[in-house]
Design a protein that fits this description.
Strand order of the largest sheet: 2-1-3-4
Largest sheet: 4 strands, antiparallel
Strand content: 15-25%
Shape: globular
CATH class of the largest domain: Alpha Beta
Distance between the termini: 35 Å
Bound molecules: adenosine-5'-triphosphate, magnesium ion
Helix content: 25-40%
Number of domains: 2
CATH architecture of the largest domain: 3-Layer(aba) Sandwich
Structural class: alpha+beta
CATH superfamily of the largest domain: P-loop containing nucleotide triphosphate hydrolases
Length: 161
């Protein structure tokens, strides 16, 4: 008998509330359940403030549900999930670092040597067509166009691939 595959990601009765003041709570996500299966491409659509980023933050392990569970391959996501790549709504770049400095940052945190970092960063920079924006200080992200900043922001995903 064929084995039924479990979903990649699932939310089970997830509620997330934020404390917004003394005795004041805001319900950002209310008893949400859904599953995402292999091969599916999912978009979360909804009005500003309806809870999309709150859901993504829980799937990335940045925050935990107030009630219910978010699951990756049937296991609760309890901490930052290294298999998850996120491109943030804001660019999440260090404005004082060059493009190369930004791309290398995650690799540095992972403990790669300077030579390895430079080699891998160069490949990623080439991949997203940002060669020429790498070293010069005036080419810090603040000096890049919006689209270039977005490509630079994809470093959290690129670094783990
Ligand atoms: N850390 C927080 N503390 C308090 N309230 C928060 C926090 N994060 C989000 N919220 C509130 O939770 C609700 C959902 O916010 P969220 O950022 O998930 O919305 P969104 O759907 O991503 O909106 P947008 O389309 O504008 O990005 C909003 O009312 C927001 O103000
Ligand atoms: Mg959002």
């Amino acid at each position: 008998m064929a084995r039924i595959k479990s979903p990649i990601l699932a939310a089970q009765n997830v509620t997330k509330t934020f404390t917004t003041g003394k005795d004041q709570e805001l319900v950002a996500v209310d008893n949400l359940s859904f599953e995402i299966n292999e091969g599916e491409f999912i978009c979360l659509l909804g009005a500003s403030g309806c809870g999309k980023s709150t859901i993504l933050n829980m799937f990335a392990g940045f925050t935990q549900p107030t009630a219910g569970e978010v699951l990756l391959r049937d296991k609760p996501i309890m901490d930052i999930e290294p298999r998850c790549g996120m491109i943030f709504q804001s660019y999440a770049l260090f404005p004082w670092k060059t493009v190369r400095g930004n791309v290398e940052f995650g690799l540095k945190i992972k403990g790669l040597s300077g030579a390895e970092r430079r080699e891998r960063a160069a490949a990623f920079i080439e991949m997203v067509n940002l060669r020429g924006f790498t070293i010069i200080r005036r080419n810090c992200p603040v000096a890049c166009s919006s689209a270039s900043r977005s490509r630079g922001s994809s470093r959290p995903i690129l670094k783990s691939s």
